[in-house]
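re: that chain from earlier
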Amino acid sequence: MCDILIEKVNKKDLAGVKEFLLSFGLLLDADVEYTIIATIGKEIVGTVSFSGRVIKCFAVKKELQGEGISAKLITHLVNYMFEKGIHETFIFTKPVNKDIFEGLGFCEVHSNGEVILLEGGFSNVRKYVNSMFEKSGLDNGEKAGIVMNCNPFTFGHRYLIERASQENKEVVIFIVEENLSVFPFEVRYNLVKKGVEDLKNVTVLPGGDYIISSNTFPSYFLKQEDDRLKAYTNLDAGIFGRYIAPVFNIKKRYIGTEPLDRVTEKYNEALLEIMPKFNVEVVLIHRLLKDNRTISASEVRSLIKQGDWETLKGFVPSVTFDYLKSASAEDVIGKIKGCE
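^ sequence. v structure.
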């Protein structure tokens, strides 16, 4: 075989990579930060990219699979990521590639037949979730769980939490920790924590690396409505059912109806289908209305952009309204008003 060259591809020269991936039925995700290719002569015979801690968009020419190209690509990329201080890595790929990555030291987190998530480096889903539970201070009693982004915290979120609080002995709220929303994680987390402190059976926790994160559910943040959306929603739901629910002893998962956001709607459908397989009941609560308008975070952001503070008062708890009127919220409001 001719010498195989591994090299970085500049963003302006990605056309050949996109064409190569298309021949495998794959796309080059818009959020990739670094892409490398394997070439023989001038022909691309393999490629892989990463974004954040996630290795993705991997493919090797079929006739050359088993020739060590995969190992060279992944080793190069992992070494580069390690040099950048990224010591926990994740891989989204097709299940057919499972053996390749396990041979390189990666371990399966979950697979749904369409996509498989593996982890490497210092990542360990079981240790991570057990550590989350130990730090929470919660007991082993049965619980209800809610996963929320709260971008920002609204009366709609509060209503859903109240319902769960009334119907269950103990409730755990996992706040999406990924910082890819307009409102930073620390702000979202603190608003919810302060906004439900009167509900003594409710505990608010950071969602961590395995609950609606870029590691487990990239489409949530990319807002992609393509064939990958169902695969990713099923994968994230499966990880919750397989790892989170058993450790926290979550027997119910509460969700709100979603008439506005297609990605969240599809995620709800995945939860309704998958959670019962893990003995977790899904409780669907209809969204709260105000003057025939759905109280949602997107509606609140729209009101902020319009500067309609009077109407906004009826959509958010005082903890959120007070924050929005404070100097601390100036940057966030500026971003919202600057959006098209």
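Residues 129-338 form a domain with the Rossmann fold fold (CATH 3.40.50.620).
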